Amino acid sequence: MPSVRRTWPRAAATTAAAAGLALTAVAAAAPVTASGTVTGAGTASARTSALPRTAARPAFAGHQLVRAVGSPLSTEECRTKWKIACYTPLQYRQAYDLNPLYKAGITGKGRTIVIVDSFGSPTVQHDLDVYSKQFGIPSSKVQVVKWGNVPKWDPKNADMLGWAGETTLDVEMAHAVAPDAKIVLVETAVAETEGVTGLPEMMDAEKYLIDHGIGDVITQSFGATENTFPGFDKGDFSSIRKLRYAFEDAARNHVTVLASSGDGGATDNTADGSGYYHERVNSWPSSDPLVTSVGGTQLHLDDAGRRTAPESVYNDNGAGGGGQSHVFTRPAFQNGVKNVVGERRGTPDISMAAAVDGGAWLYSSYDPAATGWDVSGGTSESSPLFSGIVALADQAAGKRLGDIHEALYRLYGRSAYDRTTGIVDVNDGTNNSYEGVTGYTAVNGYDMATGVGTLDAARFVTALAREGHRG
Fold first, then answer.
1. Nearest to 424 by CA among 404, 387, 386, 451
2. Exposed, middle or buried: residue 41 (CB in 10 Å: 0-12, 13-18, 19+)?
3. Distance (Å, rounded) from C-alpha 28 to C-alpha 410?
4. Are strands 142-147 and 224-225 parallel, antiparallel or unpaired?
5. pLDDT tens, 304-350?
6. Which string of DSSP letters, residue by residue, matches 189-222?
7. Cα–Cα 20 to 30 A to 428, which of 47, 158, 191, 464?
């Protein structure tokens, strides 16, 4: 089996950041041009430049066990060749019951998904076109917004390669679910790692787009362990709270914000990236109450996309992140699950496919030495998948649903006796224990392995759209 390349939750630091140079943030003083490039750069704002710096550490985004294959193989062929299952978007559509929505014209048309990644990929449009053609899905235009002085693409730079892989995963998964949604890819100039590194640039970019009416849902396949932020060990959470301005802006403008819950189970990476905490920890922005945390499951499908067993917790080459936040107390929308989360914010909220054994086929050509088809997984996959679901629900509702937490947990409250909610419990007894840290078990009802569970899209999209009108 090919070697594992671990790539969630943060991409590697740039050379400058690794050398300890001061961070700069781009001032959003200039408009987005017709080509999607943000023009003009300025000095760091007082808000971001005052944030402490932390040591950058190498890490990447997503997990890959298969790289640069000539063409996608069937699930059975993958099992024979690599001992893992691998799935196409057509199988996902069957598994998540998306086809009835498409037949009804609910395809994400008129809605915009914003994807935020450091550096991006120079071949993202070409790769999406190839991916779409392979599976008979109409392609769509990716509008690229370069936030700041994004460095020139270097295919020998491992940091850039890692983020290009993440970008490919994000774009192709969002498109797989919402094929007619517009995609805006924001490429930032500083790699997000641990602590605050790279995050001010991402938050500034998100706020700029929100303020200019760009985007209905934002998906974030990145995160940093809460414990790695400056001041955490002293009980000072201001370095995280000072970064929430984009999410507060999103709430005011009815934009839905999502984040991957992480691939470290109930633990996560230490600040230097050399290992994991030996106790339960959580990561931001997934832990933020203004963000919908998307965890990971493992699908069990045949070649037609039919389920051969119920979904289980993602726990291979990583595990779905989940647990209690050490920064945020329990938000009101989780009062109904306080017996599980206690007095803290609990994650995830909901989950979709993330396992590597059951990973997604992707096409990429950003690396000239490894052009072809890859199989990737991790919660870097589940968040963009769910962004497509939100885009579909926005279209069905005829408006932005914004922060979906209240609607989601109201649906969950009825799901035990009302199948029309589309919420599907994950309760097979598997867990997200990882790296020696005992995690949480998938049991009946809400749990911190998969949140409220997963979904049947034909029902869930309609129910979320209807419930969102009450908000």
1. 451
2. middle
3. 37
4. unpaired
5. 999 999 999 999 989 999 999 999 999 999 999 999 999 999 999 99
6. SS---STTTTHHHHHHHHHHHHHTT--SEEEE--
7. 464
CA distance to 208, 392, 466, per residue, from 399 (Å): 21, 11, 11
Report the SS3 class of residue 229: coil
Could you please report the per-residue DSSP string of 25-57? -----SPBPTTSPBP---PPPHHHHTSPP----
Max CA-CA distance within the chain? 56
Compute the distance between CA of residue 269 and CA of residue 401 in angstroms, rounded to an integer: 33
Taking each helix axis from N to C terminus, what angle separates 124-134 and 158-177, rounded to the nearest 10 degrees?
Answer: 40
Residue type, 463: A
pLDDT in tens, 161-202: 999 999 999 999 999 999 999 999 999 998 877 677 889 999
Residues forming a β-bridge with 68: none
Give the type of residue at 17.
A
Please tell me what DSSP assigns to residue 65: E
